[in-house]
Write a structure and sequence with these properties.
The protein is built from 14 helices and 33 strands. Helices cover 25% and strands 27% of the residues.
Length: 540
């Protein structure tokens, strides 16, 4: 079988290599516009920050090495310019010579990736304006910084790559400032979690301004200023990380179905056109919860989907179960991770979501280096199906996210996931795993044993009229009456049983214990503030 693969970074090289492993008699050719294939795009920010020292580490495989390893033929610096599905031919141009060549195929894979969005503003051609998409981008940026003249940088885009770039610029002694059009940083987090992340970034010396639009860049030869619809920001360099756009313009007129330039595929990775498959950043997959088309421009998606596609091209029928928007990100003194639906997304999809926010130990509290996770867990109130998890902390947030992914992909309910035999030892976790702990708290809330205001409800003013009671380990809320949980053995002086009382402690646990005890003694109008003062700003 003769297979053409257009694009050779993640999905393309995975599909081509797997095809040759499936059947060595296949004739597989990768046509790639760039000179590099199979490079570590997700590692580029860490090269900028010298976490990855050697530029050669960014290149997973050279064309020559890949050819010998797999048996796939690779053409680099060659761009596909036309696809003729009826004739099963692809026209490609050698970018060095301008020579056009027509290649025929039995089956075609389109994995041409995406390119950075270039805002239509003046000043884009100034020096010291960078994108972050290829190894060459990262190498040029680090070389400039190593020159020692860069003091201030503006990063346009507060997504995962943008914030990782900001962190690594700061590590190099450059003062970063992050701008984004969106109302909050990082897609896929609910508002209160995003605001917490923004606060931590500010504390770490990475200020973020959201809801702002870049309207131009100014400078005399080199960029000196970023102009927005609100104010201007001085900058010695600018990194543009404001999104990507699929490289699919050359497919116009082919009849291949797309959505906003992104190729639609079925669960086998096929397009609507016979013998044409698509994968990677230029293709849609689907959401594993809703079944709707979803764009997941991630190296993980590209490799998982690509491996299945190669087997399907060989006659198997392996259905891709879809994506959950799973992501993790390392920020200064804070790791963040998420998977599944946010609370707002769950509402929009017709679920009746209920959530809880906890602040829990990430390992045995007495073990050196122990910290906390701030977690938000979301489930459907009726079916008790787990829908999503968001987690923030200095520890291994990916462990919690991966447990949640497994539960969601298997359509697990809270009771079904409540007694998993997860790994425990003091250096790694708590005796009741943080995921299980949060699940138990959410079940208590659903069952009515834990009456709360979420941080979002508290911020919206739903606690108005409630008396704040300080339930911390030691008095911590100025002006609020303090109650020591361990001394409560009956009605509490100064607190009437019919009063509306908001119990607030450091993390939420101690307030819950106090609420439980107060209910026994006849207090029926108590609420606990989820996350306590660790997550909320509270005044008496």
């Amino acid at each position: 079988m003769k297979v053409l693969v257009l694009g050779g970074v993640a999905a393309g090289t995975k599909i081509a290599a797997k095809l040759m492993r499936e059947d060595r008699s296949n004739e597989v050719m990768v046509i790639n516009k760039g000179k590099n294939i199979s490079y570590a795009g997700c590692g580029l920010p860490y090269y900028v920050g010298n976490v990855i020292e050697d530029r050669d580490q960014l290149i997973v495989n050279t064309p020559a090495k890949y050819e010998k390893l797999t048996g796939v033929k690779v053409l680099t610096e060659t761009e596909a310019t036309k696809v003729d599905p009826a004739a099963k031919k692809v026209t490609a141009v050698d970018l060095a010579t301008g020579t056009e060549t027509v290649y025929d195929y039995d089956k075609l894979v389109i994995s041409v990736g995406a390119s950075p969005v270039k805002p239509p503003v003046e000043g884009m051609d100034l020096e010291n304006v960078f994108f972050m998409r290829t190894p060459e981008d990262a190498i040029a940026l680090r070389d400039l910084i190593d020159g020692g003249e860069i003091k201030k940088a503006v990063v346009v885009g507060a997504g995962y790559i943008g914030l990782e770039i900001a962190e690594n610029l700061k590590a190099k002694g450059v003062r970063p400032f992050v701008l984004d059009m969106a109302p909050h940083v990082l897609p896929g987090f609910d508002e209160e979690m995003s605001e917490y992340i923004e606060g931590k970034l500010q504390e770490a010396g990475i200020p973020v301004v959201t809801g702002v639009k870049v309207t131009g860049l100014e400078g005399d030869g080199k960029v000196e200023k970023v102009i927005t619809d609100k104010k201007a920001y001085k900058a010695d360099l600018v990194v543009l990380s404001a999104g990507i756009r699929p490289n699919t313009g050359f497919l116009e007129g082919t009849g291949i179905e797309m959505f906003k330039g992104t190729i639609l595929t079925d669960e086998l990775g096929q397009t609507n056109v016979a013998d044409i498959y698509a994968a990677g950043d230029c293709a849609m997959v689907h959401n594993a919860i809703t079944g709707k088309a979803a764009w997941s421009p991630m190296g993980s998606t590209a490799n998982i989907d690509g491996r299945l596609i190669a087997q399907n091209m060989m006659g198997k029928e392996l259905h891709y179960r879809g994506v959950l928007g799973t992501a993790v990100c390392k920020l200064p003194e804070l790791n963040v991770g998420r998977t599944g639906l946010t609370e707002e997304q769950a509402k929009a999809e017709g679920f009746d979501p209920v959530s809880v926010i906890t602040v829990v130990d990430d390992k045995a509290h007495y073990y050196p280096g122990a910290g906390t996770f701030t977690m938000k867990m979301i489930a459907d109130r009726q079916s008790l199906r787990l829908l999503g998890v968001q987690v923030l902390g200095q520890g291994a947030v990916d462990k919690v996210v991966d447990v949640a992914v497994t539960g969601i992909m298997l359509k697990g309910t809270l009771p079904e996931l409540a007694d998993l035999d997860l790994a425990y030892a003091p250096p790694f976790s708590t005796a009741i795993h943080p995921f299980e702990h949060t699940l138990n708290v959410l079940m208590n809330k659903i069952n009515g044993d834990f009456d709360t205001f979420t941080p979002a409800e508290f911020a919206a003013g739903k606690a108005e009229g409630y008396k704040v009671v300080d339930a911390c380990l030691v008095p911590s809320i100025e002006g609020a009456p303090y109650v020591d949980l361990t001394t409560v053995e009956g009605p509490i002086d100064g607190l009437a049983k019919e009063e509306k009382i908001l119990l607030v402690c450091n993390k939420g646990k101690r307030a819950y214990l106090l609420q439980n005890r107060m209910k026994f003694y006849g207090y029926q109008n108590t609420k606990v503030l989820e996350g306590g003062i660790s997550f909320n700003e509270v005044e008496a």
